[in-house]
Amino acid sequence: MKKTFPKILIAGPCSAESEAQVMTTATSLARHGITIFRAGIWKPRTRPGNFEGVGIDGLPWLQRVQRELGMKVIIEVGTPHHVEEALRAGIDMVWIGARTSANPFAVQAVAEALRGTDIPVLVKNPINPDPELWLGTLERFERQGITRMAAVLRGFSCYEKSIYRNPPLWDIALELRRRRPELPFICDPSHICGRRDLIEGVCLQAIDYGFDGLMIESHCNPDAAWSDAAQQLTPDALSTILSALPSPPYSPL
User: Which residues are within 8 A (CB) of 80 and not within 5 positions of it... i.e. 6 or more apart?
Assistant: First the structure.
């Protein structure tokens, strides 16, 4: 396939941890030309007791990013309450995580909460490698009138040994794209890799496969991150990877 740089580039920390961490990271990313800032404020965790996000306390920090840096901001939502708070705070776009997209009841509830809005919705693949489930998640949002959507490949849970945290199983994403060619397709190499040293290679693979965008985790001090430390890049390291790729014609969703 022809190599073209992804048109959509989203970056930011796995989790919003403090106002200082959010602003320091966002400021550095803005300096490197990033215009869409991601940060999780609600974190679905496998077991209770782990850091599950700062919740609504993080929304004013993201509003500062919008106001002072002119960046768009995106967060994960998993319940109607999350949607309500995100809309009230003026969040620009939302993503549906892999755990949520595997649950049709949760997807339906979130989709209904978004009915009547024109906010872009990014749908990550479900954790299990089921293209019909991924497609069904997209369709549930469409049935509620959501017209601006994108599919995000973040890899799949797999018991087989792999160098990746969540093997990408590119064929599944390519099959979904064959069936829904009008949708933007974005690759999340951070969750695929689980290790920052593998991220550049997966970015290049995504470009080879014609993906429309990248969503990469970046933190001002990755080794001290409260979640997913091993897969996050500093803004400078992210910029180094991007500079090795063709000149990026960034565009909004």
Answer: 109, 110, 112, 113
Please state which CATH number belongs to domain 8-243: 3.20.20.70
Helices (H) and strands (E) in the chain, counts: 10, 8
Q: What residues does each domain of the chain span?
A: 8-243
Dihedral over alpha carbons 31, 36, 41, 43 (to 10 degrees): -110
- Residue burial 158-169, b: 16+ Cβ < 10 Å; e: rest: eeeeeebbbebb
Q: What is the pLDDT of residues 178-195, one digit of tens each?
A: 999 999 999 999 999 999
Q: What is the pLDDT of residues 116-165, one digit of tens each?
A: 998 999 999 999 999 999 999 999 999 999 999 999 999 999 878 899 99
